[in-house]
Amino acid sequence: MLRQTLDQRGSAGTGLRIELRFDLRGRTAGQVRIRSRGDYLIRYNPELLRRGGADFLERTVPHEVAHVVAHERFGPMIRPHGPEWQRIMRTLGAEPSRCHNYDVTDLGQRRLQRFDYHCSCAEHCLTSIRHNRIVKGQRYYCRRCGEPLRRGRRDR
Asked: Which of 46, 98, 126, 133 has the fewest CB within 10 Å, making it most exposed?
């Protein structure tokens, strides 16, 4: 199906790159990252692959591949698990389910690091996600006073 999609779009052999990694941890079975047009990263959780075996190969692998096909065929504006993705899953012979049902009770959950920020009226605690966005140039403002948030604790 991926080859058929590429042939229809005239993209076959023109640089579609899919990198596979088995480095995902925690409770997520698989993940697709769309880096740029024709450049994808599919990550799989090796522990859940070990636990799930054939079921993982029959459900999780097509799940992530269907995301790539859906993006190539229908573009970036579709819902991640919408009707286009579901149709592709059925074509691949897989049930279009959003979540896996593997036992993950003993697997760790992602813990976000917290960073102290402040404005003139209060102290704020931001997660590593927002902190990294600030490092890259995005600004966050206090909802109360409207000032941009600054790194560190407030002087008293």
From this structure: 98
| Continuous H helices in the chain | 2-9, 46-52, 54-74, 83-91, 128-135
- How far is CA 3 from its chain centroid? 24
Residue of 19, 47, 58, 64 with catalytic role? 64
Rg of the chain on CA atoms, in Å: 21
Antiparallel, parallel or unpaired: β 123-127 and 17-21: unpaired
Instruction: Write phi, then psi, for 148 (nearest 5 degrees).
Output: -65, 145
Within 10 angstroms of residue 154's Cβ, the number of other Cβ atoms is 14
> What is the rounded CA–CA span in Å between residue 149 and residue 116?
10
pTM above threshold 0.90? no
**Catalytic annotation on 64?**
yes
For residues 71 and 85, give the distance between their C-alpha atoms in angstroms, rounded to a whole number.
9
Residue 71, helix vs strand vs coil: helix
| Distance, CA of 122 to chain centre | 33
